[in-house]
Amino acid sequence: MSTCTCSCLLVVAVMLVNVSPAAAQEQHRNFAPRKSYNSAQEQRRNQTRYVADLRKITRAAGTIFAGIVTSVRHTPASKLSEIETVQISFRVDHAIRGTRAGENLTIHEWAGLWSTGDRYRVGEHVLLFLYPPSKLGLTSPVGGPLGRFNVDQADLVVLKTETPKLPPNNAGTEKPPGKSRVSYREFSRAIHRAAEE
What we know:
Layout: H1 3-17, H2 21-31, H3 40-60, E1 63-75, E2 85-97, E3 104-110, H4 112-115, E4 125-130, E5 148-150, E6 156-158, E7 181-183, H5 184-196
Antiparallel strand pairs: 1-2, 1-4, 2-3, 4-5, 6-7
């Protein structure tokens, strides 16, 4: 073994043995379970962040609705001046802005979004906040995943709750407060309030 390798190993060994009690305590604190979601102040902060996000996506949206995906069709570019798109059709169940309940609505998205995971499946039930169509007639959910909500089998809108980053041993930690699913009526009221603010 070379002298250089031996001296490097010796330095690492000394560093591992000489960890101060204060450093060890700090390291334990960093990995100890946290209950960051149990204070009223943290709950208010999360609620404020949710309301601010809802206000932003509501203001930017030209169309807001809940519906079921009825067809998905890839449309290749036929000319050099065209771009590949995906045509998605929905049966609108609940119209909030820019459409009517019972309507069959077809939108066109840039096919490149599909390579980043923004995909729809026939039969999928979603609530969407869509940008107004561009000059090319294309649209997409406002803020990407922020403007797209799943709807469960009980017809409840599944809210996006932030999952806290937990250490590997997360015994004793609590789940984030608040609802994880709401009715269309409750969600629609929140959207209308956000639009008025």
